[in-house]
Amino acid sequence: MNDSPTDYRDSHVGKGGSYDAALAAQPFDAYMARLEADYLREIVPQLVNGGGRYVDFACGTGRIIATVAPLVAESVGVDVSETMLAAARQKCPSSRFVRADLTRDPVDLGEFDLATSFRFLGNAEHTLRQAALGAVSRLVRKGGHLIVNSHRNPHSIGAAVLALRGHVHGMDLTYWKLKRLLREHGFEVVRVRSIGVWLVRARMRTAAVLEARGAAPAERVFRHRMFAPIAPDCVVVARKH
């Protein structure tokens, strides 16, 4: 699921009918998605307090917007893939969805109080990340917030172990690189939730381990932002200057 084409824009164009099932079939991907949703339900009300305009960039099948939409006054999803948007419309009938590539053809959607972009920056090539963050920055009002995740950290403990064994993982978006990119586009990181730090070996990322009684306490111990540089996934909240 992590192999990236030359242009990540093309990676999911025809996968709207299969994307959710593919994500759910991978225990660790499903685990990350569940904890990301839990944190969004915790943090979004603190940022918008039941109101505000919200946009999900590269919304895909609507996984994130389905979590956030009930917490805001207005929600908009944007994606380049019509098949992904078709799935999102079924999932979130109260949200507005727009097929567009905002990195190439800006669309006047107005300003937003909150934006999200999940499972995008870690997969996209660097030039596309720059273009995407530029597009999102233009959408978010001053004082508004952007929430992103970074689920392919090459400095995570698990990735480091694989690298020592000669595995080429193709990941390059470290936590520090993500912070620099956000700062370059006018965002300051204000909160971070680390996910999966305790899962240091691939053999631990099974349904049996992830659903065990000890998983939740382990997450609570290691969810602090200080662990983000070595976390396999983290959710980053950034405020627009």
Q: In words, what does this structure look like?
A:
The chain is α/β, with parallel strands linked by helices and 241 residues long. It has a single domain, classed as Vaccinia Virus protein VP39 (Rossmann fold). 37% of the residues lie in helices and 20% in strands. The protein contains nine helices and seven strands; from the N terminus they run ααβαβαββαβααβααβ. The chain has helices at 19-25, 27-48, 63-68, 82-91, 126-139, 157-164, 175-184, 207-210, 215-222, and strands spanning 53-57, 74-79, 96-99, 112-117, 140-150, 187-195, 233-240. A seven-stranded mixed beta sheet has the order 3-2-1-4-5-7-6, sandwiched between helices. The longest helix is centred in the N-terminal third of the chain and has 22 residues, at 27-48. It is globular and about 50 Å long.
Count of helical regions? 9
Please, what is the average pLDDT? Answer: 94
Helix-strand topology string: HHEHEHEEHEHHEHHE
What is the 3D shape?
globular
CATH superfamily: Vaccinia Virus protein VP39
Q: Per CATH, what is the topology? A: Rossmann fold
Main beta sheet: strand number and arrangement? 7 strands, mixed
Strand runs, count: 7
Indicate how many domains the architecture comprises: 1
Beta-strand fraction estimate: 15-25%
CATH class categorisation:
Alpha Beta
> What is the terminal separation in angstroms?
34 Å
